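Incident review: delayed structure delivery

Summary: a single-chain prediction request sat in the queue longer than the usual turnaround. Root cause was a stuck worker, restarted by the on-call engineer. No data loss occurred. The affected request and its eventual output are reproduced below so the record is complete for anyone auditing the incident later.

Affected input:
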Amino acid sequence: ALQSMLGYSPEEVLGREFTTLFPETEFALAMGVLDRVIGGERVELLELPTRSKAGRSVPVEVSIAPVLKDGKATGIQGIARDITERKRAEEEVGRAVEAAEAANRAKSIFLANMSHELRTPLNAILGFSEMIGRDHATPPPIQEKVAIINRSGEHLLGMINDVLDLSKIEAGRSEVEQEAFDLLQMLEDIGHMFEMRAKNAGLEFILELDP
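Output delivered after worker restart:
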């Protein structure tokens, strides 16, 4: 199994230093583990970088236990498993997470920019519609239509804010805001928006509100 994993034949490793199987940078770690096991300790599922005969680094997961006789360690036995594929998969997951986080940051920047671009003309629409609605020279039928434009604009502004709140939801920073509102007025506002679209499509739209 060792020959398959690291490329050494039994003859090439028997009688050689234990550190043969490890990169120089890992000598101290490997010898520290060996000392712990000789001292009677079991080491479970420890990741160790080993070195193949060709000089390639091979990550392995080892479980090592001392062979005891009369309470003293006379040898060690253990299992080593090549975890190259697992480490590669973990690295791919890490890269995918980084890419997702970068995409999420880009989306947040896009939403922030778009909200600014949408708010600018919308604020002009709301401001002028409010001015026209307050003008005493504006006939009542026109005032009613302007009021619909104003409420629809306010509704659109609320939707823009809702879109921005998505980033807060994803970040786990969303807060519930409780406030009173006029349910009938909200339904009527929504009805007016549907009514205009329905008329343009040649359809009749009827809104019935339960008292």
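Verification: The first helix runs from residue 2 to 6.
Action items: add queue-age alerting; document worker restart procedure.
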